Amino acid sequence: MTVTVVVAIGRNGVIGKDGDLPWPPTGDLAQFKALTMGHPLVMGRATYESIGRPLPGRTSIVLTRDPSWSAEGVETAGDLRSALARAAELDDEAFVIGGAQVYAAAIEADVVDRLVVTRVHLAPDGDAWFPEVDWSRWYETGREAHDGYDIVTYDRARP
């Protein structure tokens, strides 16, 4: 199974503020929908709650440490490995969509095959950051320039 991280990052590494994006909508949501449609989404509980509902046409797998937490129309998992195992039962590609702790867990576990990064041309204040990435382990495979942001795809370098 391919594990793809999808994230929007400011120039300063910020990805969020107060549970929301720290910039106005960039226009990358249509690309996000097209990219993820039909595939499972893995996200943290706070990210799910910021979205407020399951996204149509995709299975939402929400990571939570609270075994009593549930939401209609979503599946839950207690850890990243369980979430990815469930995603693998559903499809050959899963998308990790946040938040910061989930991104960090996926990168630290070394399970990510692809990064689709919206590089926002701003450096806003925030309270959530994308984790450190060893960019020497990734190579750029695509770039779309837009007004105020670029969408850049990176694949993991294989030894």
Keywords:
159 residues; Dihydrofolate Reductase, subunit A; 4 helices; 22% helix; NADP binding; DHFR_CS; one-carbon metabolism
Describe the structure.
The protein has helices spanning 29-36, 45-51, 80-90, 100-108, and strands at 2-9, 14-16, 41-44, 60-63, 74-77, 93-96, 114-120, 128-129, 138-146, 149-156. With 159 residues, it is α/β, with parallel strands linked by helices. The protein has a single domain (2-156), classed as Dihydrofolate Reductase, subunit A. An eight-stranded mixed β-sheet has the order 5-4-3-6-1-7-10-9. A two-stranded antiparallel sheet has the order 2-8. It is globular and about 40 Å long.
Topology:
Blueprint: E1 2-9, E2 14-16, H1 29-36, E3 41-44, H2 45-51, E4 60-63, E5 74-77, H3 80-90, E6 93-96, H4 100-108, E7 114-120, E8 128-129, E9 138-146, E10 149-156
The neighbouring-strand order within the major sheet is 5-4-3-6-1-7-10-9
Strand % is: 25-35%
Structural class: alpha/beta
CATH domain class: Alpha Beta
The radius of gyration computed from the alpha-carbon positions, rounded to a whole number of angstroms, is 15 Å
Assign an overall shape: globular
- Identify the CATH homologous superfamily: Dihydrofolate Reductase, subunit A
Number of strand segments: 10
DSSP summary: helix tally: 4
Task: Provide the residue-averaged pLDDT.
Answer: 96
- Indicate how many domains the architecture comprises: 1
